[in-house]
Amino acid sequence: MTRITAEQLVEILRTVARRIDEAREHLADLDGAIGDADHGRTMSEGFAAVVRDAQDAAHAGAGAADLLPIAARSFLDAVGATAGPLYASGFQEAGRRLAGRAELSDGDLLTLVAGLGDGIARRGKAVPGDKTMMDAFGPALRAIAAAEASDADVGAALGLAARAAAEGRDATRTMVASKGRAARLGTRSLGHVDPGAASAAIVIDALREAFEAIRAARGGRG
């Protein structure tokens, strides 16, 4: 098993930022239907800030786990919208769980996803079914727990998490929003995919993609 260095974690975050930026207009369109159409911009700017500051810290000698509280501050500083405090809380929780590790193991990526989801849930006080990003994170975390219980490898666990997040995202189309700005629409939010769930599904799938790239570079081991 190869360890994940701070520099590799920056590349993982860079993959997330790239995928979010590619979906920027799509996320804006989703948000425009039930919100104020700024979700794509804020998520793109937030992850761009995360990559910039994490890269600077890694170059200065920070350990891999040290990048996560830095990511929390960066995202919060860059994003004043609802997603800012939520993802900041997620990165902070992931950093707390992995504190002190100069390098991460493959399995620590699962801890990172779980920390993100649990931190977001605690800050937002949302659960699956509320038509929020937790409709992607919740199923993803359950998939990870089931995969770990069956001794699935990290790649398989991340694949299952990404699939569950996508299914959760799609399920928001049939939900009435009960949290956030979209809750003001009541039943008019029916028929629309929640933008927060859509971006969360992108984040989780990008983490899967980045891990697969690392595994391919090491010859498929891990």
UniProtKB/TrEMBL annotation:
Domain DhaL, residue spans: 7-209
GO CC annotations, alphabetized: cytosol
Keyword Transferase: yes
Cited SUPFAM superfamilies: DhaL-like
Enzyme class per UniProt: transferase
EC number(s) given by UniProt: 2.7.1.-
GO MF, any single term: glycerone kinase activity
Keyword entries, A-Z: Kinase, Transferase
InterPro entries associated with the record: DhaK_L_YcgS, DhaL_dom, DhaL_dom_sf, Dihydroxyacetone_Kinase
GO BP of this protein: glycerol catabolic process
Name of this protein: Dihydroxyacetone kinase-like protein
Organism: Aureimonas phyllosphaerae
